[in-house]
Write a structure and sequence with these properties.
Belongs to the plant self-incompatibility (S1) protein family. The chain is of the alpha+beta class. The chain contains 2 helices and 9 strands. A hairpin with a 3-residue loop joins strand 7 and strand 8 (119-124).
């Protein structure tokens, strides 16, 4: 008849499993994500980008044609990190959730976006193309 495991062995194994789980979660917390936004407006207009989260306002950035703006951050453990940006060029103004952790955490840690008149597209590392695309919800026209 086999002897029952000792209490100290069970406690040691339980501690080891708990410690391993904590280490994996700490490693996940330290992982950074990046967003890179490139102006590909066919009209060759300058693109004004203004990105924010609940806690951070990243300011306004002027992007000439084919120029990028990038920022990085640590997604949170609650899977609720959200950055949204406004995109403006002469005659147009749009908003978009440029990083939604629930949507994007399995798609990218380096999230490469291109922005055009019809919408924006995310680089797909599986197809090696900018084929995850979103059209602007409305073609809101600004009157000067």
């Amino acid at each position: 008849m086999a002897a029952a495991p000792s209490t100290s062995l069970v406690l040691s194994l339980s501690f080891l499993v708990l410690f391993s789980t904590i280490c994996v979660n700490v490693e996940a917390l330290s992982a950074r994500a990046s967003v890179n936004i490139t102006n590909i407006l066919e009209s060759h207009q300058q693109l004004t980008v203004h990105c924010k989260s609940k806690d951070d306002d990243l300011g306004f950035h002027q992007l000439p044609p084919l120029i990028s703006y990038a920022f990085d951050f640590r997604p949170n453990v609650w899977i609720s990190t959200l950055f949204f940006c406004s995109f403006q060029w002469p005659g147009s103004f749009h908003y978009f959730e440029i990083y939604n952790q629930k949507r994007d955490e399995d798609l990218c840690t380096l999230c490469l976006w291109i922005v055009g008149e019809k919408g924006l597209c995310l680089y797909n590392s599986k197809t090696l193309k900018y084929d995850i695309c979103y059209t602007w919800p409305s073609q809101r026209i600004l009157k000067n």
